[in-house]
Amino acid sequence: MGDFTGIMEWCFGCHCCESFNEYYNDERLKSTLHFHDGKRKIDFVMAYIETDDEDDDVNDRRRKVYEKALMRKGLELEIEPKEESQDQVTCFVKIHVPYDVLLAYAERMRMKMPLKEDRVDFEEGDDQHECCDSIDCKMCCTQPFRLENPELDDRDQDNYTAEFTRDKIEFFDVKNEDTFFSDSQRSRIAYRIMNETKFGDEKTMVGINRLINDGTYDCVYPLHDGAYDVDKFEIANQQNMRGLLYREWGRWGRWYKYQPLDAIREYLGVKYALYFAFLGHYVEMLFFAAAVGVAVFLYSIISLYFLDNTR
Q1: Which of 42, 47, 67, 258 has its CA 20 to 30 A from that of 56?
Q2: pTM score, whole prediction
């Protein structure tokens, strides 16, 4: 249920509701990454199984206290009851972090955000673009390992970055409030708030990890950016980073291509981008050791063959 599609399915017993059920499903599934209003993006999801046990009453009270505390910190919540889940027992709490809260915690967490860039306007008749096009053409011909995809080129962030402060927000590249923070940054801020929120008077009664260990919630997770098995036209129209990474990076046919580290950083975060960058460099360095090993192996087989013949 990575793309939240599974919990959006309804099941009606009577046959007269089938047409309404199909229409309702179609309308709901159009925006599985947003709240019911289709505008507020889902940044995190908390899931728990609702039972009739006495222990569940204690967990229910803890959940109510914790969710009210999250709302007091500015988060917006929307609950999907168990009747709307696929297994009819799991409840989902969808979390959205408003823009003002994102700005406040980005400053608190000292996030590095892109600054505005100074663009240089070329005069008419300047052959700068023609020169760049010829260089790119030569590089594509001489470097078959590059990823030739304009969607990935647009993801490259060459802007300078600085620690975000709300007092100097005019210096940051805020083109759109919905896209200023990436999905990984939104999830990181949401998880930070969830770990700092208390659900009791004791000092140890704080954080979502404690609630998971106590069985109050079963799991928490951010959502993937839609389905991955989509064609290139859907990727371009919906800006599906998950589908773009699968198409240009996660398939066997792209094993020899360079990794799109900028796109990985934007979608998964800096730590995962560094991890895959290390793995790529590590495997590349192992190529020389593997070549030597294959040469030694072939030499041993040839030597063994001639040695048997001499005997």
Answers
A1: 42
A2: 0.70
